[in-house]
Specification:
Elements: H1 5-21, H2 27-40, E1 45-47, E2 53-55, E3 58-60, E4 68-70, E5 74-79, H3 86-99, E6 103-108, E7 118-122
Parallel strand pairs: 5-6
Antiparallel strand pairs: 1-4, 2-3, 4-5, 6-7
């Protein structure tokens, strides 16, 4: 898949967080530290934005929340798990579909080398 400079910059921020903290912490810790790193790099983002579901023309709050929405064009789904499963991928793909945002990163921080824990999706 073709890599774009913006996504590469965001991945660089995630790698820097992982370099500082390593694996083994809670997802919420990585989320806050990644937010700080994005801020240091002057990248705008929203933590935990609501993801409403549209049903028959009405937006309904069903409790879904993205982990991080970066510059309204990239969804980050963060994990700190032993193994990424299909349900984690499905979660990100669902958020991408509901939001019409075409690019997403599934980032699992619970790996020795973060590049092994990153999956890029494009719809």
């Amino acid at each position: 898949m073709e890599k774009d400079p913006f996504t590469a910059q965001v991945i660089g921020c995630a790698i820097e967080v992982h370099r500082e903290l390593g694996p083994g912490l809670l997802e919420s810790t990585y989320e806050q530290c990644l937010a700080h790193e994005l801020d240091l790099n002057h990248i705008s983002f929203i933590l935990q934005p609501p993801m409403p579901v549209r049903d028959k023309g009405v937006l309904l709050d069903c409790g879904y929340r993205m982990d991080v929405l970066v510059e309204n064009r990239l969804i980050l789904e963060l994990k700190a798990v032993d193994e990424v499963k299909g349900i984690h991928e499905a979660q990100l793909l669902t958020y991408m579909k509901l939001s019409s945002i075409r690019t997403g990163l599934l980032i699992n921080f619970n790996v020795p080398r973060l590049s092994d824990g990153i999956r890029r999706f494009r719809i």
